[in-house]
Write a structure and sequence with these properties.
Layout (H helix, E strand, L loop, with lengths): L7 H19 L6 H8 L3 H7 L3 H24 L5 H18 L1 H10 L5 H25 L8 H12 L14 H14 L21
Helix pairs in contact: 1-2, 1-4, 1-6, 4-5, 4-6, 4-7, 5-7, 5-9, 7-8
């Protein structure tokens, strides 16, 4: 069996990162293998050495990103925090990841529908496991008569954080780390529990989130 070059995985990762940015910018359907090869600085023939086709590349992007999110769920779970602190740490950790993974997150949100059935099923199964990690914590926070709402409440929470990449700007008055406690306070206690916002970095940037 032919041994892969020592640089194979590093080059594959570089291609995956470049493709992620391109898919996030233009959308999966609008990007061709030729576009990908050009963005990655390699030939089309070499692209096929690393990925059998564009769909395989999309799957690797989504699958590896979900694995990263699951590793966060696992790491926070290993801290064995009380439920409320556990949820806060999860939201803080996910928002920190989202801040540096906006292209990956955009691809996961908008392009998974283009995966082949088997690949899509695998990614969705992993997504459900991530969601369940949150739901298990939320169930511990709910009273017995509300525990059955853990999954719907979890989906509401994800609705609060999963689309921040569309409006939370680098130049705006709030950072991802600012937003994490706001989201958790709002989720746990309602609007009355949200802490006052600290002074904006620059008033002129308020327009950035308008």
């Amino acid at each position: 069996m032919r041994r892969k070059a020592d640089t194979f995985e590093a080059q594959r990762a570089a291609i995956r990162d470049a493709a992620t940015r391109l898919f996030a910018e233009k959308g999966y359907k609008a990007v061709s293998i030729a576009d990908l090869a050009r963005a990655c600085g390699v030939s089309k023939a070499l692209m096929y050495h690393y990925y059998r086709d564009k769909e395989h590349l999309l799957f690797d992007i989504a699958d590896s990103y979900i694995d990263r999110l699951q590793s966060i769920v696992d790491a926070v779970g290993a801290e064995e925090l009380p439920p409320a602190a556990h949820l806060r740490r999860l939201v803080e950790s996910f928002m920190a990841e989202y801040e540096h993974s906006a292209p990956r997150h955009r691809v996961l949100v908008q392009d998974v529908k283009y995966l082949e059935r088997v690949h899509r099923a695998r990614v969705l199964a992993k997504q459900r496991r991530v969601v369940q990690g949150y739901a298990d914590v939320i169930a511990q926070l709910a009273s017995a008569d509300r525990a059955r709402l853990a999954k719907p409440l979890t989906m509401i929470l994800f609705g609060m954080i999963n689309w921040t990449f569309t409006w939370l700007k680098d130049t705006g008055p709030l950072t991802y780390s600012d937003m994490a406690p706001i989201v958790t306070d709002l989720f746990l206690g309602g609007v009355s529990r949200v802490r006052p916002m600290r002074a904006a970095r620059t008033p002129a940037t308020l327009k950035a989130i308008a």
